[in-house]
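Sequence only, no structure available. Ideas?
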Amino acid sequence: MEHPDLQRFRPAVLATLVAVSVALELVVHVALGMETVYSHFFYFPIVLGAVWYGLRGIPIALFLSALYLADTLFLSGTIGFEPAARAAMFVSIPLVIGLVSDSMRKKHDRMIAGMAGVHGPQAAAGAGHVRRGEALIRHLAPPNAKKMREAGDVPGLVRALGHKDPGVQYAAAEALGELREPSAVPPLMDLLAADRYSGVRWKAAEALARIGEPAVVPLVGALHHPDEDVRWKAAIALGEIGDGRAIPPLVELLGDPDRFVQSRAAYALGEFGTRATPLLCLALANGPPSVRRGAALALQKIRDLAALGDLLRAAGDPDGSVRSAALEALMHHGEEGYRRILLYLSASQATERAKVFQAIREVSNPRLLQGFVPLLHEADGESREFILSVIGAGERNDGPEESSPGA
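Reply:
I predicted one. Tokens follow.
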């Protein structure tokens, strides 16, 4: 809670922020003609006014909105949809914040008034009423996860996971993860799967990862949850735990219908290192396209030399996304990877060579192509000419600061 002595500075702070907002409006909007970006500063006085004064802070938003719309009308002769929508946001955001702030303040005042009632008409009851009042405050106050963690109060922390305040849930999940308490796995799994704020879900997944082995089986089960947010968070937690039992189901998750879940599964598999290489190479050869692509992404992170041959074969994959992922994985192996690509090109038929050329053209990071330069003397003429043309085009797109390599 803010110290009472600091509350007297609120008007001065708001006045300063409003003055700066007005100055920005006159200089940036009116004088320079810029219509956006600068107005984001308006949210500082608008939001602070609503937090500190509730609905009484709305006049700040109304003033700045009116000033912005008036200047827009003065400069362009009309008020379009975007300025009107922006002004509406200036008012609607503090309106919501103000309603919440006033509601919280009223609840706090009612609690204090109730406590005062204990000590007022029944003051003759003395210390007994004081103790009951303190107990009521402790009951109404949110649980203190830090103190419960220090006391090792696991049951209390588990109960706090079900608190209506997401902040309490977050702190309780963090504390249970720090305690590495196996008995907390079921309620943390419930919190992970609950329809809650993403931050609370993430903290539940993080806590499960810290608990480790006892959470593996439930997390593997969560890889089939209907909510993709739960699936990818469970995958990341399994990658952090590093239990080998999770490798097969994570490889299966590479075929998830959600592209982001696929990428997180690949990232998690990369955390297992070379232990995952055999199964990933098998998936790279025999899985459906999304699984093959995910396997190549995971192998890129692992950088196991034993996978070079499998990645090289995937460079001729019929699916373009798989070819691109396999090529980038080979490039991340450094000189040996680039040399393998050039040898593959030299030995390939025209149709296969064309597929690899297209994949090279689609490399997501153009700077990766620079790794070919020291080895171009080993390439055949067509490959050398093509790679130099792609590098040159990439450098022209990147701008004049990049220097073109010599032939």
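Residues 155-271 form a domain with the Leucine-rich Repeat Variant fold (CATH 1.25.10.10).
Hope that gets you unstuck.
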